[in-house]
Design brief:
- By secondary structure, the chain is α/β, with parallel strands linked by helices.
- The protein has one domain: P-loop containing nucleotide triphosphate hydrolases (Rossmann fold, 3-Layer(aba) Sandwich).
- It is built from seven helices and five strands.
- Strands 2-3-1-4-5 form a five-stranded parallel sheet, sandwiched between helices.
- Helix 1 crosses helix 7.
- The longest helix is centred in the middle third of the chain and has 20 residues.
- The termini are close together.
Length: about 170
């Protein structure tokens, strides 16, 4: 059975690392959809406005629907700063009769700042200033989710993710 796995959190928290580990677990049966890639397609010079985000998430949901319809496990990689964005994807999963798993990725702020400063050639344009802006309005997470702290080493991270996926 296909799944809908939502990997969310602030820029620099390591969402893409977690999404890639999940993709490794499921292999060809899965696809990663990244809001950063869709944002780049739709808005090459993004200002990270709410209007842009609304358009990005609308396209994100359209693509999610398509891949779920063809039987893929879809891994969503995005900030999902607003609870309404998380609720919308939950509703989409329910409509598709797909198991939804929300994974909130967090990290120590010092690691986030380092990661954002070291980014080169990444599709995400988010820098520390964007991180602070998004952090200021990132809404409290409600509903059923797990939190993964991406401040440690990659080996421990993989063990935690594989353990979660094998039991859910």
């Amino acid at each position: 059975m296909n799944r809908l796995i939502i990997v969310f959190g602030l820029p620099g928290s390591g969402k893409s690392t977690v999404a890639n580990i999940i993709h490794e677990y499921f292999g060809e049966k899965s696809i990663i959809l990244r809001t950063d890639e869709i944002r780049q397609e739709l808005f090459p010079k993004s200002l990270y406005t709410q209007d842009e985000s609304d358009n990005v998430y609308a396209e994100f949901y359209r693509r999610t629907n398509h891949f779920l319809n063809i039987g893929k496990t879809v891994i969503l990689d995005g900030v999902f700063a607003k609870q309404s964005e998380r609720d919308s994807v939950q509703v989409l999963g329910e409509k598709m009769k797909t198991n939804c798993h929300f994974i909130h990725v967090i990290s120590d702020e010092q690691y986030i700042k380092e990661r954002l400063n070291q980014r080169k050639g990444d599709v995400s344009e988010a820098n520390y200033e964007v991180y602070l802006k998004l952090k200021s309005y990132f809404e409290k997470v409600t509903g059923k989710y797990i939190t993964i702290d991406n401040s440690g080493n990659i080996g421990d991270l993989k063990v935690n993710i594989f353990s979660f996926l094998s039991t859910n």
